[in-house]
Design a protein that fits this description.
477 residues; alpha/beta; Serine Threonine Protein Phosphatase 5, Tetratricopeptide repeat; DNA Cyclobutane Dipyrimidine Photolyase, subunit A, domain 3; five-stranded parallel sheet; 5 strands; 46% helix; 6% strand; globular; binds flavin-adenine dinucleotide; lyase
Length: 477
């Protein structure tokens, strides 16, 4: 009887423990991906990620074919699909790599219980994270709430396991079960094709993920510590969508970033591994606080007077706030399905504090538009910026978007790339065109309010308004 490997957010052959275990069983292996739809037909992916998924499945399918296998595609509720395919193929075992978000865990627990009850072996493996979130515990045996001690425990826990190689051949059954056609899933946007420029920046799939990692280690790891905060530089790894779909494992990234033998890039190595650990920390938080994705971890914020301001939220989503760094970020997001980390913090602070719109609205927009949308990092980061999460930035730390822009994009290179209306504004005013003399704007071909907008709020007054609202919840607690 064959065995089934159920692929989920682990669309790779290298360092895939479930696949390796299935092959070592000595039985024919069936590779399966299920498009898990809820009763309402909704997908567990935002629109941008559906684009990525399409291309990633296509790449995985080709990788499997090269190893003599095939990817079987089915859609529906996971347990029903699995029961059907087990019955069709007479498979005796199911293997998968564990996921750690609450929805995934609840599906997987139900599947495990149902399969075991019917005498089918169900085995799960680690690999989505550097360390299983249940493994790291504080001195008193509880979960961590603060990053620094978490990071210490993670680094003291030893290196993650050395990645295992991809199999060169995957033995298959004589006859593969029927597969649905990827095209029929219609994961790609129809008209208008708002994802048309994603392909300029991104190549989904395991091979591209490995190339991306190798190029980063070779060219950028050494100066990562200094360059990572500057959105105008190509200073970070841009591995996040690949990690979100498990085209590469965090252990592969960790080990590849071991640095030069002479230690010349030791700082870059340390900072990069620490960022990978933030991903683990987000999962650790979500695993131990499943409400992280929906509710304020700090319940004082339940009384915060959020503003339900649709036109303001709309201006933020379209990159039309009049604050160039915010607008550049939001347009980078829309056009490329990605935003630099520094700018994510700035746009999130602007939405939550300057506009006082609930962080949940920002998180949902990110979920739909980010190629790396991740249930743990997205929720944990939004709550971190809002000041209501674990180990969060305090609420009163309100980013001034103009100063942030001047500090982290001094020449305005990032602005010019994403807000072409401002491309001729001199560096002195590129982060505050609203302060530029009329003659400067005229020479740059900008008329604020027709085309590029003036500021939708005055930052200084918005800041005071937010601090007052915050003092009311502090006073009431
Ligand atoms: P690099 O700087 O090269 O870092 C390497 C890897 O470390 C990243 O790929 C990522 O997996 C991890 N990492 C880095 N920074 C963080 C962080 N602060 N938190 C968690 N993991 C981190 N990241 C996501 O992967 N998905 C999200 O949905 C997401 N939403 C975010 C929302 C907000 C409001 C903010 C402020 C940050 C969010 N991040 C999210 C974290 C971070 O911005 C991205 O991981 C990073 O920008 C990805 O680019 P990179 O791969 O070049 O990162």
């Amino acid at each position: 009887a064959p065995v089934i490997v159920w692929f989920r957010r682990d669309l790779r052959l290298t360092d895939n423990h479930a696949l390796a275990a299935a092959i070592s069983s000595g039985r024919p292996v069936i590779a399966l991906f299920i498009l898990e739809q809820g009763n309402d037909g909704a997908l567990p992916y935002g629109a941008a990620q559906a684009w990525w998924l399409h291309h990633s499945l296509s790449a995985l399918s080709a990788r499997l074919a090269a190893a003599g296998s095939r990817l079987v595609l089915r859609r529906g509720a996971a347990l029903e699909v699995l029961q059907a395919i087990l019955a069709e193929t007479g498979a005796c075992a199911l293997y998968w790599n564990r996921r750690h978000d609450p929805d995934g865990i609840s599906v997987d627990s139900a599947v495990k219980a149902a399969l075991r009850a019917s005498g089918i072996q169900a085995s799960s493996f680690a690999g989505q994270l550097l360390h299983d979130p249940s493994r790291l515990k504080t001195g008193s045996g509880g979960p961590y709430k603060v990053f620094t001690p978490f990071w210490r425990a993670l680094s003291d826990g030893g290196e993650p396991d050395t990645p295992i190689d991809a199999p060169s051949h995957i033995p298959g059954p004589e006859q593969f079960p029927h597969s649905e056609r990827l095209e029929d899933w219609r994961l790609l946007p129809q008209k208008p094709d708002w994802a048309s420029r994603f392909g300029e920046t991104w190549t989904p799939g395991e091979a591209a993920a490995q190339e991306q990692l190798a190029a980063f280690v070779r060219q950028r790891l050494g100066r990562y510590g200094q360059a990572r905060d500057f959105p105008g530089l190509d200073g970070t790894s841009r591995l996040s969508p690949h990690l979100a779909f498990g085209e590469i494992s965090p252990a592969q990234a960790w080990h590849a970033a071991r640095g030069a033998a002479d230690g010349s890039d030791a700082e870059g190595v340390a900072v990069f591994r620490k960022e990978l650990a933030w991903r683990d920390f987000s999962y650790h938080l979500l695993f131990h606080n499943p409400e992280l994705a929906t509710d304020n971890l700090d319940r004082r914020f339940d009384a915060f007077e959020w503003r339900d301001d649709a036109p303001m939220f709309d201006a933020w989503t379209r990159g039309m706030t009049g604050y160039p760094v915010v607008d550049a970020g939001m347009r980078e997001l829309w056009t490329h399905g990605y935003m630099h980390n520094r700018v994510r913090m700035i746009v999130a602070s602007f939405l939550i504090k300057d506009l006082m719109v609930h962080w949940r609205s920002g998180m949902s927009w990110f979920r739909d538009t980010l190629l790396d949308a991740d249930p743990a990092s997205n929720a944990a980061s939004w709550q971190w910026v809002a000041g209501c999460g674990a180990d969060a930035a305090p609420f009163f730390r309100i980013f001034n978007p103009t100063l942030q822009g001047e500090k982290f994009d001094p020449e305005g290179a990032y602005i010019k790339r994403h807000v072409p209306e401002l491309s001729r504004v001199p560096a002195k005013y590129i982060h505050c065109p609203f302060k530029a003399p009329a003659s400067v704007l005229q020479a740059a071909g900008v008329r604020l309010g027709s085309g590029y907008p003036g500021p939708i709020v005055d930052h200084a007054s918005a800041r005071s308004r937010a601090l007052e609202a915050f003092s009311r919840i502090k006073a009431s607690s």
